[in-house]
Amino acid sequence: MDFSFSQDQITFKESAIEFAEKVLNKGAKDREGKCEFNRDGWEKCAEFGVQGLPVPEEYGGLGLDILTCVATMEGLGYGCKDSGLLFSLNSHIWTCESPLLKFGSEYQKSKYLPGLCNGTLIGGHAMTEPDSGSDAFSMRSKAEKRGDRYIINGTKMFITNAPIADILLVFAVTDPTKGFAGISAFIVEKGFPGFSTGKPLDMMGLKTCPLGEVVLQDCEVPEENRLGKEGAGAAIFNSEMEWERSCLFATHVGAMSRDINDCIRYVKERHQFEKPIAKFQAISHKIADMQVKLELSRLVLYKVAWLKAQGKRAPLESAMAKLFVSESYVQNCLEALQIHGAYGYSTELDFEKNVRDSIAGKIYSGTSEIQKNIIASILGL
Amino acid sequence: MSILENIEKILLTEIAVGLADKKIDPEADLLEQGIIDSLGLMKLIDFLEKTFSIKISDEEIVPENFQCLNSMVNLVQQHL
Ligand SMILES: Cc1cc2nc3c(=O)[nH]c(=O)nc-3n(C[C@H](O)[C@H](O)[C@H](O)COP(=O)(O)OP(=O)(O)OC[C@H]3O[C@@H](n4cnc5c(N)ncnc54)[C@H](O)[C@@H]3O)c2cc1C
Question: What does the domain layout of chain B look like in residue ranges?
Fold first, then answer.
């Protein structure tokens, strides 16, 4: 058992922190107020290599192993205060690029991956519908084969990046008699006839990440844009969720680490009753608890990344990691706010924003309750 | 125990719990009947990989390989 990162991985992490602090934070507060996506930051991330981290060099990526990707994303999470941008990047990488890489034909990979890596294309995935969330496979969207194309009809809801996406991985029913096994996945370009998106939805947090509705009205998708075989949709979705649950939360771990450092600095400086508030055990114990949550989040995240690096399936471990890191992040954000008192509650600082942003992690990629269902089911319950 | 009996046993005891039948028709469409759900399929794949020391790729998780007992037996045999 080896708990250390290699020198290369440490270098990637440190340079990601430096890059994020220098390049991505300028104007973040302003963009948050205007709910504005940082397109320039997106392009700078592509120049740095973020969008292509796990993608092989032949398709324009850096071809890094998964632990190095996790180390780099953790660094970005530490350095970048724009959680909306990080969430957009994560969705793009783990729910669009990653399934394309795994299930895509050579034609699909060479057509889309270079643009997804170099920042010219933005991607995402569209599963959730107005009436199907946790019970994702009960979707109503249908894809009917007509000649050499599919005609998709349906509505997708809460789709990350939808208002700015160039391509979306859309899931639809091709065989209604087969339940979850009758679902297929399609790469849908924004210019395909019958594809449209609504305006960005106003959510509680992640304000700089555009998220919206997708309407597919007799949307024509060429057969060569079906990802994998007919009926492979559920396997593709499960595989991408496992990747997302294993890797997306690296940015949360980075952010937790930065928040603890901010708290430590603050409690040493802030004096009440003629003492630094760090000297009150009620405060120092909060930070001790936050550090324990951070350390355990790191361990569970690295363990699942290590399993994935070995090509193993990790449904149990990825569900546990997703559940633990997302819940810990919310708790740490709440404690960080409390430690900063009214300053923490003020919008001048980022602590209230972090609380709003963190709560989304308990919902997307399968809610906390659904992760517990998965864990219980694998335990035979 | 044959491959078929092994798979039938796990289906009856772990995946399709509550199914009254003691036997499964090897040609019965288990997906159409809703006997296997997506979590059940994950557990079934884990069982097949461990029991028969094989590796099933994500690309092989398509209906034709899991439709009925016989198709699962075929899939396992291809890997042995
Ligand atoms: C920020 C954000 C980004 C998102 N991005 C995307 C995206 O890019 N693509 C996409 O397809 N979707 C996306 N979603 C949607 C997300 O996947 C769903 O919100 C999620 O799966 C939950 O579905 P729901 O909101 O419909 O809640 P519901 O499924 O209606 O659940 C409501 C409540 O009931 C609980 N519940 C439901 N079923 C059970 C059960 N069996 N056992 C116990 N409790 C249960 C849930 O945990 C929840 O607390 C995003 C959501 C958010 C918040």
Answer: 3-79
B46 with A137: Cβ contact below 8 A: no
Say if the Cβ atoms of B43 and A377 lie within 8 Å: yes
Cα–Cα distance, A331 to A289 (Å, whole number): 10
Q: How far is the CA of A134 from the centre of ligand 1 (A)?
A: 5
CB distance A260 to ligand 1 below 6 Å: no
Report d(CA A76, CA A250) in Å as an integer.
9
Residue with the nearest Cα to atom 43 of ligand 1? Answer: A369
Cβ–Cβ under 8 Å, residues A211 and A160: yes
Cβ of A363 closer than 6 Å to ligand 1, yes or no, is yes
Asked if B38 and A137 come within 8 Å (Cβ–Cβ), the reply is yes
Nearest to B71, CA basis, from B38, B39, B22, B32: B32
Domain B3-79 sits in CATH at 1.10.1200.10
Q: What is the CATH topology of the domain spanning A124-230? A: Butyryl-CoA Dehydrogenase, subunit A; domain 2 (2.40.110)
The answer to whether A75 touches A251, Cβ cutoff 8 Å, is: no
For residues A232 and B33, give the distance between their C-alpha atoms in angstroms, rounded to a whole number. Answer: 18
Local mean pLDDT, 10-residue blocks, chain A (381 residues): 90 98 97 97 98 98 96 98 98 97 97 98 98 96 98 98 98 95 97 96 97 98 97 94 91 98 98 98 98 97 94 93 98 98 97 98 97 93 86
C-alpha–C-alpha distance, residues A226 and A169, integer Å? 9
Euclidean distance between CA atoms B43 and B49, whole angstroms: 10
Active-site residue, A36 included: no
pTM: 0.95
- What's the Cα-to-Cα distance from A276 to each of A265, A272, A283, A342, rounded to whole Å? 11, 6, 10, 17
Give the closest residue (by CA) to ligand 1 atom 30.
A133
Cα–Cα nearest to A349, from A333, A372, A367, A329: A333
As for the ipTM of the complex, it is 0.88
- B63 at interface of A, judged by CB pairs closer than 8 A: yes
